[in-house]
Design brief:
Elements: H1 5-12, H2 21-36, E1 42-47, H3 53-59, H4 66-73, E2 76-78, H5 87-100, E3 103-108, E4 111-112, E5 121-125, E6 128-131, H6 132-142, E7 145-149, H7 151-155, E8 168-169, H8 171-178, E9 184-187, H9 194-207, H10 219-222, H11 226-229, H12 233-237, H13 265-268, H14 277-280
Parallel strand pairs: 1-2, 1-3, 3-7, 7-9
Antiparallel strand pairs: 4-8, 5-6
The structure holds ligand FSX and iron/sulfur cluster (2 copies).
The site of ligand FSX has 14 residues, from helix 3 and helix 7.
Length: 302
């Protein structure tokens, strides 16, 4: 199904669709890729300091065929968790991809820069460990673009929280330090919603670079404030605050960071629309550049 950019933006906005947003975005992604793919866009997916939640969020969507898309249509040449190859064969896949053609680099997790990058070693070359810093210097320069999936990759996230012993940082900060000019799209969230990742990729391949906010994130998914759109907003106005989890009322006094967070979780919801953080708990502001330090403490417990 080919969508105009306008229809696509409407779809990403979470407007009512019968089959679920993830399914629809996936269909568009498949279409975009099939169209764009004369020889499949190659993707190298690197993992720095992270919990792997970003991969899990994407691969565990209710739609199992995302794996097929990643493995067969996109031509995912390297992914530490889903690829069958290991050792020299796996490293060779990165090197050959980088030499052969245009490729996109997906980065999950932050880059550990202290001790010559030794906190993130991915593979070996000439009996020496290749660090994430090495790969980012090498592949970051030659990639057609970088998708920074997850708050760790976008802004440093949890690995960069104080005291940050590994010198962890996000891709944009690393590129600024290294004077690498390759464009980066931040798809934040700890982890990001699968629609944000699939939708951003589909936009990039179908219509080019999406419009980004001042934090380098697609406005499409991160353009609205959670608090302003929250279904509990009426309680906030009435000053009816929940005093414990599960109680009726706005969650502000339990530590809700909705007023400081920009994303569409309230309408998109998670796990195929089943629920979202604020329904049973609070928003932690996981999509924001200051997460987690600037938004601490996570919970207020009185
Ligand atoms: Fe970071 Fe990804 Fe948080 Fe985890 O791997 S964005 S720690 S949920 O998931 O990098
Ligand atoms: Fe705002 Fe959170 Fe209250 Fe919702 S629950 S109205 S996001 S403070
Ligand atoms: Fe992150 Fe808040 Fe959305 Fe939950 S509701 S995923 S904490 S931005």
């Amino acid at each position: 199904m080919e969508l105009s950019r306008r229809q696509f933006l409407k779809l990403c906005g979470g407007s009512a669709i019968a089959l679920g947003v993830s399914d629809a975005l996936l269909a568009q992604l498949v279409f975009a890729l099939e169209k764009a793919v004369k020889g499949s866009p190659a993707v190298i997916w690197l993992q720095g300091s992270s919990c792997t939640g970003c991969s899990v969020s994407l691969l565990n969507t209710v739609h199992p065929s995302i794996k097929e898309v990643l493995l067969k249509i996109i031509s995912l040449r390297f992914h530490p968790n889903v690829m069958a190859a290991s050792g020299d064969l796996a490293i060779k896949a990165i090197e050959e991809t980088a030499k052969a053609a245009d490729f996109y680099l997906v980065v999950e997790g932050s880059i550990a820069t202290k001790e010559d990058g030794l906190y993130n070693v991915i593979g070996e070359r000439n009996e020496r460990g290749i660090t994430m810093v090495d790969w980012m210097r090498e592949l970051g320069k030659s990639a057609a673009g970088v998708l920074a999936f997850g708050t760790c990759s976008a802004f440093g996230g949890i690995p960069a929280a104080k005291p940050n012993p590994t010198g962890a940082m996000g891709v944009k900060d690393f590129f600024a330090k290294e004077k690498i000019k390759t464009p980066v799209i931040n798809v934040s969230g700890c982890p990001p919603h699968p629609d944000w990742m699939v939708g951003t990729l589909a936009h990039l391949l179908s219509y080019g670079m999406p419009k980004l906010d001042s934090d380098g994130r697609p406005v499409l998914f991160y353009g609205k404030n959670i608090h302003e759109n929250c279904p509990f907003r009426g309680y906030y106005e009435e000053k009816k605050f929940a005093k414990y989890f599960g109680a009726e009322g706005c969650r502000y006094e339990l530590g809700c960071k909705g007023p400081f967070a920009y994303s569409d979780c309230w309408s998109r919801r998670w796990n195929n629309g089943v629920n979202w953080c604020v329904q049973n708990a609070i928003c932690l502001g996981c999509v924001e550049s200051g997460f987690p330090d600037a938004l601490a403490p996570m919970y207020v417990n009185e």
